[in-house]
């Protein structure tokens, strides 16, 4: 729970004294807490540079390169694993920017940039396991990085990027990684920019699936942008009139990402709320970013029950949209979405046959909105939702094997918003949880059990809102087996962060703390844990353990109070404009 508002007022003077003390004496090393890629470090490795680009004024100008798979670590596609190393430096003042990596028209990584500062600037490196995209890396193709950056008065930071790929050779000890036979993009199929689609309206694409497909696992990318960046702060339309114009956006806080096959709901996701590093209190996300900011989570659904429909040799419509709990299910502008279909085929070239034997999936989640408006102007609103999907099918491959598929999803959501003390205090208490299970002849083929609790307090310290504090309690609890050929894992991550920010014509200043408790274990027996805390840009404690932990801890720089930070203005819920 958050302390009473009075405690924030009493602590304001102390916070102001600290506001200008976060400074730099060396390059700031930013990072997101995450497990190192679980790849065989004792295998032969081949590393190639894919791209190098400084993104200055790059809006609408992505980096486009042609990729050729290496052959020094075995035949293309025979690798034990693949990782990407993305290293970026920046210096100046700039907003965070979204980055989209597209390969063969398939989105393979969605990231964002930490916000830089002047002086020695910042650097970060993120290692990402992309083994599940081996079918793409096994052949030449077009690789695109879209990182739209703007240079204008007050924003001069550029992002100097380098991307390397490392291929891990297979051997008797490290066999080739399991993989799909084919990956089909559900994207815009653009060849001159990132391939994500903006919704609303719904994004649809006609795709043709191999006639001998026997399993299809769909991966969904989705993140809120613009008026949907802080979707969890948006207020139910029923109570908008109780709040001042321009204070918040409508269409409520519930969001469901849906994938439809020929207009029928096939699977959904309740998304994790990624807070980008310029969000609310930028100084809370330095040097430790919010969880997911450098590697946004994705969501898998099993389309295998639709194989009898999709393998008729004809194009079929695959749609992705994002909907709310409002009566018209509308959302604001916008979300970026994309998808891919990871297809497993039968050795026989004969068509797969079968039929859907049970279909229980309503078009939308069941939702409820309640609330109250007090005589003192306090507004309290709760939006809740549940979603249940159950689909079964009988599938017979060209080889004659019959599979009984059972795909089910059960999800719950609740968001309570408090607007208190003449709107100077805003609280968010949100929970999203659920379980996905798909069995093929009784054997689990896709498992996803998750819980994403999020509590935020945002408190203004002065009437014009130019000085404020925020507290965050955010967790990512997830046990996931995305597909039989993708390594399953369990992640427990809790992030406690807080910060003060002061917006002024003489420069924006602030401070922040960030504490992370993280653990990872996968079905191959790899483990990793990390407990790390930062205060005003300083790492004050850091412990790493487990089989994936580095042999020696990374030495992070320390800082001393010399010069106030100069940072871009924070982005706030409802696109509120405050201060100068």
Please give a structural write-up.
The chain is mainly beta. Helices cover 4% and strands 47% of the residues. It has three helices and 30 strands. The longest helix has 14 residues. The radius of gyration is 24 Å and the shape is globular. The N terminus is likely disordered.
Describe this structure in a few short sentences:
By secondary structure, the protein is mainly beta. The chain is built from three helices and 30 strands.
- DSSP E strands, number: 30
Main structural class: mainly beta
Helix content: under 10%
Unreliable parts: 1-25, 560-564
Major beta-sheet overview = 12 strands, antiparallel
Shape: globular
Mean pLDDT score: 93
Question: N-to-C terminal Cα separation, in Å?
Answer: 32 Å
**What's the number of helices?**
3
β-sheet strand percentage: over 45%
Q: What would you report as the Rg, rounded to the nearest angstrom?
A: 24 Å
Helix and strand topology:
Blueprint: H1 5-18, E1 28-30, E2 45-55, E3 63-67, E4 81-91, E5 98-103, E6 106-112, E7 122-129, H2 134-137, E8 141-147, E9 158-168, E10 182-186, E11 197-199, E12 203-207, E13 213-224, E14 256-261, E15 264-269, E16 299-302, H3 307-310, E17 316-323, E18 335-345, E19 353-361, E20 366-373, E21 379-396, E22 402-420, E23 425-440, E24 443-451, E25 454-460, E26 467-481, E27 489-502, E28 509-522, E29 527-535, E30 538-545
What labels would you give this structure?
580 residues; mainly beta; twelve-stranded antiparallel sheet; 3 helices; 4% helix; globular
């Amino acid at each position: 729970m958050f302390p009473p508002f009075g405690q924030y007022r009493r602590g304001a003077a102390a916070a102001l004294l600290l506001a200008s003390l976060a400074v730099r004496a060396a390059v700031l090393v930013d990072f997101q807490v995450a497990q190192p890629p679980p790849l065989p470090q004792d295998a032969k490795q081949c590393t190639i540079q894919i791209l190098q680009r400084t993104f200055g004024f790059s809006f609408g100008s992505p980096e486009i390169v042609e990729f050729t798979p290496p052959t020094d670590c075995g035949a293309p596609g025979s690798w034990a694993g693949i990782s990407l190393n993305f290293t970026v430096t920046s210096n100046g003042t700039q907003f965070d920017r979204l980055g989209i990596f597209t390969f063969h028209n398939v989105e393979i990584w969605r990231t964002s940039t930490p916000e830089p500062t002047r002086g020695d600037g910042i650097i970060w490196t993120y290692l990402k396991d992309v083994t599940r995209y081996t079918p793409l890396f096994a052949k030449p193709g077009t690789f695109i990085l879209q990182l739209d950056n703007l240079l204008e008065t007050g924003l001069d930071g550029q992002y100097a990027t380098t991307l390397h790929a490392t291929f891990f050779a297979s051997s008797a000890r490290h066999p080739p990684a399991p993989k799909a036979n084919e990956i089909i993009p559900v994207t815009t199929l653009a060849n001159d920019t990132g391939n994500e689609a903006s919704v609303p309206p719904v994004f649809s694409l006609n795709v043709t699936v191999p006639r001998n497909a026997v399993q299809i696992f769909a991966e969904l990318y989705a993140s809120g942008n613009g008026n949907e960046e802080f979707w969890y702060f948006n207020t139910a339309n029923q109570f908008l009139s109780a709040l001042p114009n321009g204070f918040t956006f409508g269409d409520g806080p519930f969001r469901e990402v849906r994938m439809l096959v020929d207009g029928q709901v096939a699977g959904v996701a309740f998304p994790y709320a990624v807070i980008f590093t310029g969000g609310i209190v930028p100084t809370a996300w330095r040097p430790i970013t919010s969880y997911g900011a450098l590697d946004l989570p994705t969501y898998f659904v099993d389309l295998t029950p639709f194989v009898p429909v999709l393998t008729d040799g004809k194009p079929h419509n695959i749609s992705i949209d994002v909907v709310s709990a409002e009566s018209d299910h509308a959302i604001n502008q916008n979300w970026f979405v994309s998808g891919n279909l990871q297809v497993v085929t039968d050795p026989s070239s004969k068509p797969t046959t079968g039929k859907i034997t049970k279909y229980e999936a309503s078009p939308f989640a069941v939702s409820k909105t309640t609330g109250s408006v007090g005589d003192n102007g306090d507004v309290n609103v709760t939006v809740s939702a549940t979603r249940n999907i159950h689909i079964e099918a009988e599938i017979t491959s060209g080889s004659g094997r019959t599979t009984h598929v059972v795909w089910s999803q059960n999800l719950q959501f609740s968001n309570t918003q408090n607007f208190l003390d003449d709107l100077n205090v805003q609280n968010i208490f949100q929970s999203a949880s659920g379980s996905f299970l798909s069995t093929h002849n009784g054997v689990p083929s896709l498992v996803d059990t998750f819980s994403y609790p999020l509590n935020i307090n945002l408190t203004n310290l002065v009437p014009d809102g130019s000085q404020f504090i925020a507290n965050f309690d955010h967790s990512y609890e997830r046990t996931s087996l995305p597909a039989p050929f993708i390594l399953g894992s369990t992640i427990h991550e809790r992030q406690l962060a807080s910060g003060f920010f002061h917006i002024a014509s003489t420069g924006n200043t602030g401070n922040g703390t960030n504490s992370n408790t993280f653990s990872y274990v996968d079905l191959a027996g790899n483990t990793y844990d990390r407990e790390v805390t930062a205060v005003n840009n300083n790492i004050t404690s850091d412990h790493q353990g487990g089989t994936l932990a580095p042999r020696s801890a990374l030495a992070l720089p320390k800082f001393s109070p010399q010069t106030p930070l100069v940072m871009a203005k924070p982005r706030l819920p409802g696109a509120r404009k405050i201060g100068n």
